[in-house]
Design a protein that fits this description.
The complex is a heterodimer of chains A (about 375) and B (about 325). Chain A contains 8 helices and 20 strands. Chain A is an alpha+beta fold. Chain A has 2 domains: about 5-240, Rossmann fold (3-Layer(aba) Sandwich), CATH 3.40.50.300; about 250-355, no CATH class. In chain A, β17 and β18 form a beta hairpin. Chain A is globular, with a radius of gyration of 25 Å. The two termini of chain A are about 45 Å apart. Chain B has a domain at about 60-130 and about 165-310: MetI-like (MetI-like fold, Orthogonal Bundle). Chain B has helices spanning about 5-35, 45, 60-65, 65-100, 105-115, 120-130, 150-155, 170-200, 205-210, 215-245, 250-255, 270-280, 285-310, and strands spanning about 40, 55, 135, 145. In chain B, a hairpin with a 6-residue loop joins β3 and β4. Classes of the chains: A alpha+beta (about 375), B mainly alpha (about 325). The interface of A and B includes residues 59, 79, 86, 96 and 109 of A.
Chain lengths: ~375, ~325
């Protein structure tokens, strides 16, 4: 089932009656979510990603715009009739029911010809439980389960009625780091096995990048960029997207373009032919630095962090906007640095130029 | 552990409460138990310096064989068994409805809570006035100047007027008035407790139910009631305890005769009987009746707790 969002907008009226400060939580969101894909809505808190999800679920009514499931306009349809599955951030498992009762609950609500027999319900509940691998826990109460197990029960409950669209609100935020890694692979596997169009919300860019077919980066109600995770990472539309994606984050410098050359401070680091002279932000991914004895960018070395699979150099430069410049090197290439300065040359395809204004749009050009 | 040096301080702070409890609660309880086993004991005889009594179970057998006791026990049981379930179900429905509406919620909450802060004797008198028929009711050709508000309403809709509480009235008519009064009087406290319980239920359960297209009655029965079960258990247990101690409501409507003019004592309850025994200077029997009432309340509460253990979640 493809999901189409047309000029979807949500405006929350001002809390304070005197001031007329409305909050535009989502601002004309246009997107066609292809059938059977896993979509990650990504952004910092307050960017409107959860609001978008709840509008798709029907629990929130859009201020304007339309939502289509396939060719059906569901904008005016209430949640009950949308046929969606929703996994809440805190799972919202009914505490007084066993796992089995929780999973069967949506089926027991079905009416008329849709209503399966008791045996079919049990069969489907077992099937959903097997899919998320909790079939040994069916007679437990939610309070007797770990966070990860509760999460799976919540997914099973959302899947058991075969929803047209599966929505997940910050599905991993209540799990510890290791479980998060495991569960996100689970979500990917379950989504692939069922083929249900799935939309999930997260503020964790790594989470979104690792499992999504497409990611939507949002900021203050506006969609910043939509694309495949790697494409968005490699071609950020603006400085916000560039900074939001990637750990460690991108290094940003104040710089300028003069006569086709890119300067950080007085050092001409790269060439950007055809770009008019102007002040720019220069973003360089942590893996975009080469340590070179004659490199043009001279930084003060602060520290070296050894992480096993990689080594990271912490250095500083007066033009850097980040307090620390963090660069990554594979551990198998052994680099020794002497003294307290380190010199870098920059990889052109890991270096981006952005306009030096509030929007900080990317300057499309070929950096060499 | 509090250090021993500090302990006397703790006792000092507790002393006022402990002294009051000892004098007005513990001592009377001990006395009640003792007096229940003292046959032919009279508190008044004490003043004359003459105390003669035998120790035995005579008070209990006399109370149990007393016809008044049997009718009081039956009245009390009936009132409990009818008013507690009715008021609990009504309170639940009203609380859920109140919780669901936004406008006027606070105002309605106040209205529903008013009976709780009003004197129950005064309310009883108002109820009596509402059901009272003024005129010669019992005669063959009644001459009536006022039927009372309730009968006026019945007559407005074309029904026959009922002799609710006056001379010649039926036992069940009397009971009906009493039940309406007790249920109405019991509602505010129950609504308050249940409303408090409702506001503490996480809204996401209802959103989840909505996503799963759960019908309303099913949400109430499968989600709200189980999640409210601790409050419901509390409301039911305290309801039974209050029901077994029913007394003022009857005095409020029927006066101290505890019944309509032609049949005094017909609506007497256990507590009423205890007061009657005290009034007729029979402390022994009053104590025995009090202990029997205590035993009944204890058993019913234990049954309640046993049931709620199975039914109450978490």
């Amino acid at each position: 089932m493809k999901v189409v969002l047309q000029n979807l907008t949500k405006i929350f009226p001002s809390r304070n009656k005197r001031s007329n400060e409305e909050v535009v939580a989502v601002n004309s969101f246009n997107f066609e979510i292809p059938d059977g894909k896993l979509i990650g809505l990504l952004g910092p808190s307050g960017c409107g990603k959860s609001t978008t999800l709840y509008m798709i679920s029907g629990l929130l009514k859009p201020s304007s715009g339309k939502i289509f499931f396939g060719d059906d306009d569901v904008t005016e349809l209430s949640t009950e009739n949308r046929g969606i599955g929703l996994v809440f951030q805190n799972y919202a498992l009914y505490p007084h029911m066993t796992v089995k009762q929780n999973i069967m609950f949506p089926l027991e609500n079905l009416k008329g010809a849709d209503r399966p027999t008791k045996e079919q319900m049990l069969e489907r509940a077992y099937e959903a439980a097997r899919l998320v691998q909790i079939d040994q826990l069916l007679d437990r109460k939610p309070s007797e389960l770990s966070g990860g197990q509760q999460q799976r029960v919540a997914i099973a409950r959302a899947l058991v009625k075969m929803p047209r669209v599966l929505l997940l609100d910050e599905p991993l935020s209540n799990l510890d780091a290791r479980l998060r890694l495991q569960t996100r692979e689970e979500i990917r596997r379950i989504q692939k096995e069922t083929g249900i169009t799935t939309i999930f919300v997260t503020h964790d860019q790594e989470e979104a990048m690792s499992i999504s077919d497409l990611i939507v980066v949002m900021k203050s109600g506006l969609v910043q960029q939509i694309g495949k995770p790697q494409d968005v990472y490699d071609n950020p539309a603006n400085l916000f997207v560039a900074r939001f994606l990637g750990t460690p984050p991108i290094n940003v410098f104040n710089g300028r373009v003069q006569a086709g050359k890119v300067y950080i401070g007085d050092a001409a680091v790269l060439e950007a032919a055809g770009v008019p002279d102007q002040e720019v932000y220069i973003g360089v991914r942590p893996e975009g630095f080469n340590v070179a004895e004659d490199g043009p960018l001279v930084c003060q070395l602060r520290d070296i962090e050894v992480m096993g699979h990689a080594t990271s150099f912490l250095s500083s430069h007066e033009a850097s906007i980040n307090p620390v410049i963090r660069t990554l090197k594979d551990a198998d290439r052994h680099i020794t640095v002497e003294g307290d300065t380190i010199r870098y040359s920059l990889k052109p395809h890991k270096t981006f130029l952005f306009r030096h204004d509030d929007a900080a749009e990317r300057i499309e050009c070929e950096v060499k | 552990m509090v250090e021993s040096k500090q302990q006397w301080k703790a006792w000092l702070y507790l002393a006022p409460a402990i002294v009051l409890l000892l004098v007005f609660t513990v001592w009377p309880i001990i006395n009640t138990v003792a007096m229940a086993f003292m046959e032919d004991y009279s508190g008044l005889a004490n003043i004359g310096g003459e105390t003669s009594f035998r120790v035995g179970l005579g008070n209990f057998t006399k109370v149990a064989q007393n016809a008044d006791f049997q009718s009081a026990l039956r009245n009390t049981m009936l009132l409990c068994l009818i008013t507690v379930p009715v008021s609990t179900v009504l309170a639940l429905l009203i609380a859920v409805a109140l919780h669901a509406i936004k406008p006027l919620q606070k105002a309605l909450q106040t209205i529903f809570f008013l009976p709780y802060v009003t004197n129950s004797i005064a309310i009883g008198m108002v109820f009596a006035a509402m059901f009272n028929v003024i005129g010669s009711v019992g005669t063959r050709r009644p001459l009536i100047s006022s039927y009372g508000i309730i009968n006026d309403v019945i007559r407005f809709f074309g029904g026959n007027w009922v002799n609710w509480i006056n001379s010649g009235s039926d036992y069940w008519a009397n009971m009906f008035v009493l039940i309406v009064y007790i249920v109405w009087n019991a509602l505010p406290f129950k609504i308050l407790i249940l409303l408090g319980g409702l506001t503490s239920i996480n809204k996401q359960y209802y959103e989840a139910a909505k996503v799963d297209s759960t019908p309303r009655w099913r949400v109430l029965w499968r989600i709200t009631v189980p999640l409210l079960s601790p409050m419901l258990a509390y409301v039911i247990i305290t309801g039974f305890i209050a029901g077994f101690k029913e007394y003022t409501s009857i005095v409020g409507i029927y006066g101290e005769s505890m019944g309509p003019v032609h049949a005094p004592h017909r609506l007497n309850t256990m507590v009423g009987l205890i007061y009657d025994s005290l009034a007729s200077n029979n402390q022994g029997r009053a104590s025995a009746a009090a202990l029997i009432l205590f035993g009944i309340i204890l058993v019913v509460t234990l049954i309640n707790l046993w049931v709620s253990k199975k039914r109450v979640h978490y």
